């Protein structure tokens, strides 16, 4: 059963956030991420909706709770992101 990790995050500066996001690509791969998508609100480019696909909810949860990801998100955002995991039915 595949899973999608959905993240809603408001960041201080998209360009700075994107640099950190790109740096954690190896971490996404380590947890088995198979696809990703970054979307921005048209009227606020710092308000983001990000999705990552994983082979299972367990792999998605492992990525979401990885201490290295937590540290990176802390450097890149204004506050804690909203993170949810959805599975295929």
Can you describe what's shown?
The chain is an alpha+beta fold and 89 residues long. The protein has a single domain, classed as Alpha-Beta Plaits (2-Layer Sandwich). It contains four helices and four strands. The chain has helices at 14-23, 25-30, 57-64, 67-76; strands spanning 3-10, 35-41, 44-54, 82-87. A four-stranded antiparallel sheet has the order 2-3-1-4, with helices on one face. It starts with a strand and ends with a strand. The model has no long low-confidence stretch (mean pLDDT 93).
Mean pLDDT reading: 93
Number of structural units classed as domains? 1
CATH structural architecture: 2-Layer Sandwich
Low-confidence stretches: none
Q: Report the C-alpha radius of gyration, rounded.
A: 12 Å
| Principal-axis shape | globular
Largest sheet: 4 strands, antiparallel
- Structure class: alpha+beta
Q: Give the count of helical stretches.
A: 4
What is the level 1 CATH name?
A: Alpha Beta
CATH topology: Alpha-Beta Plaits
Q: Secondary structure elements and their pairing?
A:
Layout: E1 3-10, H1 14-23, H2 25-30, E2 35-41, E3 44-54, H3 57-64, H4 67-76, E4 82-87
Antiparallel strand pairs: 1-3, 1-4, 2-3
Helix pairs in contact: 1-4
Tell me briefly what this model is:
The chain is an alpha+beta fold and 89 residues long. It has four helices and four strands, in the order E-H-H-E-E-H-H-E.
């Amino acid at each position: 059963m595949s899973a999608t990790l959905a993240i809603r995050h408001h960041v201080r500066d998209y360009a700075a956030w994107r640099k950190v996001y790109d740096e954690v690509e190896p971490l996404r791969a380590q947890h088995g991420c198979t696809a990703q998508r970054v979307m921005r609100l048209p009227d606020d480019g710092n308000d983001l909706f990000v999705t990552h696909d994983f082979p299972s909810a367990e792999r998605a949860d492992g990525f979401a709770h990885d201490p290295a990801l937590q540290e990176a998100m802390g450097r890149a955002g204004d506050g804690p992101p909203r993170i949810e995991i959805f599975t295929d039915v």
